[in-house]
Amino acid sequence: MFKQFGIGAPSEFFTQPPSVGVSIARSGQLDELVALEQLGSRRSFARDAEIYAEGDRADCWFKIVSGTVRICKLMADGRRHIAEFFHAGDCFGLDGEGERTFAAEAVGDVIVMRFNRAATERLIDERPVLARCMCNMMLRNLAHAQTRLLLLGRMTAPERVASFLLELAERRDVRRVLEVPMSRNDIADYLGLTIETVCRVLSAMKRDGTIAIPNPHRIEICDRDALEATVEM
Amino acid sequence: MFKQFGIGAPSEFFTQPPSVGVSIARSGQLDELVALEQLGSRRSFARDAEIYAEGDRADCWFKIVSGTVRICKLMADGRRHIAEFFHAGDCFGLDGEGERTFAAEAVGDVIVMRFNRAATERLIDERPVLARCMCNMMLRNLAHAQTRLLLLGRMTAPERVASFLLELAERRDVRRVLEVPMSRNDIADYLGLTIETVCRVLSAMKRDGTIAIPNPHRIEICDRDALEATVEM
DNA sequence: CGCAAGCCTTGATCCAGGTCAACGGAATGC
DNA sequence: GCATTCCGTTGACCTGGATCAAGGCTTGCG
């Protein structure tokens, strides 16, 4: 019955970065979540396609079925900034009521469920438990944003890269072999660095045996302790 | 009837940075908000006092009656990071369920209302409109955090300082004369710079007539266009 | 297969902002 | 009133990461 929507059992509908723990939707909410799933429509996007643009009306939100999405912004002079990556199972696009302040783009090929904002709000008003789910989800997003503020505000390049690798590992719940769907450029714009610096730091980590890089989109953590020691706060 | 709680009419109970606009609590919610006010107790803190520490249980949250609060973290090697400043009328401390990941400290003398988390949640379950208020408040916090990510990730020192001054002006809803309650050190740790860089940028702006600095805690915006042109995105 | 277009990587050089150091001026205490 | 402490400001110098430049490695396509 739920299979039709691909991954994610309904009890994990609002699942987000496992990093912050605590599955939100708890027993007793199945009805609501099923109703919510039925409001969505499936969409797919090719690599680098725009899911929504800066300035679009924020009248819908998405849940990722498969693939990775970047939430980003291009400054007038060409500098680019990536606010967040979202992976399979994550929800994104739940912004304020007005216009999008960031764009959402497909990192590789992506399949999402698209939900109408108004319909969702109606459902939430009927079933208040859902409001709690949303609050919790946003709390986790906020906690993550604050971790990133620390990273961008006070960490060195090696700390940022180490932190990024550990985050990837945690999100995918993998201890050793990381699949890295995004380009070096994406990583740089996410970490507030340049592509060259990202490469150099990765090469240095490879040189001293902390990681292995069988190919650019696959990184293996060989010495997790060393990585963790790098970020040590 | 509401005067006893100092500033903030009940219809603005959850008021937050005006930057993102839209007052959340709308008519028809007065009862709930009054009930909420009565759950709180008044506390005051002297300059630099810790309102809560990193690692404390997050069993309460606060609304600022007067003064300014910084949400911050000290790294093992002494680097400090300020995630956010909150001003009179703002709510803070609404984190996840577990431990505080940041500390909250009084920038100057501060008076707050303290609210019990469990009691608030009970109230929210009874009066679901409040859940929407909270969601909206967190959405605005999140939007603000993302603006800050861009600032820390991709902006130069002059851009950061200009952006900070404009934010101060907007929050206080003042166009020219800014009261700056925090120290240069606080500003530096908020903008991901050093105190010397903050001073130098401010001095440069003063030199070319963009701002005036009658004393360190008062800055006047003389040429708003120049400031806005600096941050231009 | 050969060629072109994208990435990724590495090296050489540069510079924005960090670090170190000195000093001034207001607030606090004796 | 004087000493002390705490900020804020300014100057001199240094460095981490940016910028510029040159290949290398895939992938796809004629």
Q: Can you summarize this structure?
A:
Two copies of one chain form a homodimer. With about 230 residues, chain A is an alpha+beta fold. Helices cover about 40% and strands about 25% of the residues of chain A.
Summarize the topology.
The structure is a homodimer of 233-residue chains.
Chain A: H1 30-37, E1 41-45, E2 50-52, E3 60-66, E4 69-74, E5 80-86, E6 91-92, E7 103-106, E8 110-116, H2 117-126, H3 129-154, H4 157-171, E9 177-179, H5 184-191, H6 195-207, E10 211-215, E11 218-221, H7 224-231
Antiparallel strand pairs in A: 1-8, 2-7, 3-6, 3-8, 4-5, 4-7, 9-11, 10-11
Chain A binds a DNA duplex (30 and 30 nucleotides) through helix 6.
CATH topology of the largest domain in chain A: Jelly Rolls
Number of domains of chain A: 2
What is the rounded Rg of chain A?
Answer: 18 Å
Largest sheet of chain A: 4 strands, antiparallel
Low-confidence stretches of chain A: 1-12, 15-28
What share of the residues of chain A lie within helices?
25-40%
Helices and strands of chain A, in order, run as HEEEEEEEEHHHEHHEEH
Number of strands of chain A: 11
Strand order of the largest sheet of chain A: 1-8-3-6
Number of helical elements of chain A: 7
- Helices and strands of chain A: which structural class? alpha+beta
Fourth-tier CATH superfamily name of the largest domain in chain A: Jelly Rolls
Largest interface: A-B, 43 and 43 residues
Euclidean distance between termini CA atoms of chain A: 46 Å
Strand content of chain A: 15-25%
- How would you state the average pLDDT of chain A, rounded? 86
CATH-scheme architecture of the largest domain in chain A: Sandwich
CATH class type of the largest domain in chain A = Mainly Beta
C-alpha geometry of chain A: globular
Q: What would you call the quaternary organization? A: homodimer
